[in-house]
Write a structure and sequence with these properties.
- This protein has 183 residues and is of the alpha+beta class.
- It contains 3 helices and 4 strands, in the order ααββαββ.
- It has 2 domains: 80 residues; 78 residues, 2-Layer Sandwich (Gyrase A, domain 2), CATH 3.30.1360.100.
- Helix content is 55%, strand content 20%.
- It has a 4-stranded antiparallel β-sheet.
Length: 183
């Protein structure tokens, strides 16, 4: 007769199968651990990146608002800067007539007085002088012809002797050349 056993039969695993099963369990655990570590790192980085991005976005919005508030000030400062540059250019490009007059008056010795003085746009100075005596006139001419003054195109006009031994002389000289004449 045939015997039937309805109880589950314990499967007996061989030593090689047990070793393979343990090895698979260890590999699975290591793989699971690596996946878990990678997930934590990526999740942490994503959280850090999102936090940093939101902080930077907030900073950008704050700076944009500040720029909008300061646009009027920036426009005013730019306009003021342009005006200052224009005024500086005008001042630097103008001839200093007061210095020229002071220098010329400094050449006049005692006994010589200025009757008229004209400076035209071409840089010519026309002066009419009155001297009380010939010695004063000679002192003026010595002062006027000083090479350090660098006067150009000096022309002596009429020299006349008036009543009471008073001399009158016209002097014309050039201070500067216009820039388009310099070539």
């Amino acid at each position: 007769m045939v015997e039937f056993n309805f109880l589950p039969v314990k499967k007996v695993l061989s030593e090689k199968e047990l070793h393979t099963q343990r090895r698979l369990a260890i590999i699975g655990g290591v793989f699971f651990s690596l996946v878990l570590i990678f997930s934590v790192i990526v999740g942490g980085y994503a959280f850090y990146d999102a936090t940093t991005f939101s902080q930077l976005e907030g900073r950008r919005k704050a700076l944009s608002a500040e720029i909008e508030q300061n646009k009027d000030k920036i426009a005013s400062l730019t306009s003021l800067h342009n005006r200052i540059q224009s005024v500086t250019y005008i001042i630097n490009s103008q001839f200093d007539y007061s210095r020229t007059i002071r220098t010329f008056l400094g050449l006049l010795p005692s006994g010589v007085s200025l009757q008229s003085l004209k400076i035209n746009k071409l840089g010519f100075v026309d002066a009419t002088l009155v001297a009380s005596d010939s010695g004063s006139l000679a002192n003026f001419m010595a002062n006027f012809t000083n090479p350090a003054l660098n006067y150009k195109e000096i022309q002596l006009g009429n020299l006349s002797r008036r009543e009471n031994a008073v001399y009158q002389i016209s002097v014309t000289y050039r201070l500067f050349k216009k820039t388009n004449e310099a070539k």
